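Justification of computing resources. Each target in the renewal requires a structure prediction run like the one illustrated here; the chain below, 368 residues long, is used simply to show the kind of job we budget for.
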Amino acid sequence: MFDREGLESTVHQTGQGGTPLRGEPFDLAVVASALAAKPFNPHRSFRNGHAQTLAAYAWPRRSRLRALHCDDETRLFEVERGVRLLAHCAWQRERRSHPTVVLVHGLEGSSESIYMLGTAQKAFSAGFNVLRCNMRNCGGTEHLTPTLYHSGMSNDFRAVLRELIEEDHLASIFLVGFSMGGNIILKLAGEIGARTPPELSGVCAVSPALDLSACADQIGHRSNWLYQRTFVRSLRKRVHGKRRLYPDLYDTSGLHTVRSVRDFDDQYTALHGGYRDATDYYEQASARRLVSHIRTPTLIIHAQDDPLVPFASPVYSSISANPCVILLATAHGGHVGFIAGETGGTEDRFWAENRVVEYCRLVYNDGH
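Resulting structure tokens:
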């Protein structure tokens, strides 16, 4: 139905301000107003970015959420020859009559990341089909691809989207990405631009790493030593695992010299991803240069105290100028944190997860 460059036969018209028309007139401003009516009020015990980030990771809900998703169907998507992605799928009884949410995790995350499970539970309860996708190598899938993964792999999720449209005949699909996954799906939306397939109803990104170079610099700050060490250890371990599976492809002799995420990207991501070096990779793979081309209804949630992804005004000024994008910029929330205080009992404390699902519901209902 559509190739690597987007739909060839379907081009969206635009309404006032460039907002795509989807069936009946679509007013993204109404959706933005509804979301703004529920501002983020941080939990009083977690009022800085580090506290929000770490508390969200450690919050005791993983076992309960895993139990809810233990019966999810597993599915492999062949995104290019010899490369498959593993997804865990929760289908409504009549899947074609329900909208679908495709979730994409962040750096060194997986389909089992806590924010993936939490958002999946909320979306399924709201009537959505849900796919929790692993990027290449993640979630124990190193054997499914000879390659590494990186932030520029938007074509992987173009292929997933294409299969869901052409083979599953799903009529309404939302792409939702977190951190690195947010960069990937925003990059994809920008690449597709006005050639957005009508089945792609919307895009959401939480704490997206829109400027990869700025993120690498930010992670290198002394205050972020714990995150840097955690990422580097995990990435080193991943390369050692790839060498065991593909000994002719991976040289680990210099792996001990990797001390930062930027070092890793310079020595491994760039080499195996076809980039000259980390600088070239960051420039080519960052979604910041493409957000102005987005023509799909899009929600971006970002905290100004995010310790890992800096809230850069030059990037967000271009986002604010795009009428197809809603930006929820909160003073607090950390990196994929957003643990709220009292909610009045109608929602749990995970504000960003609730806003993502509400956004998808509002956009879907407005277009149907």
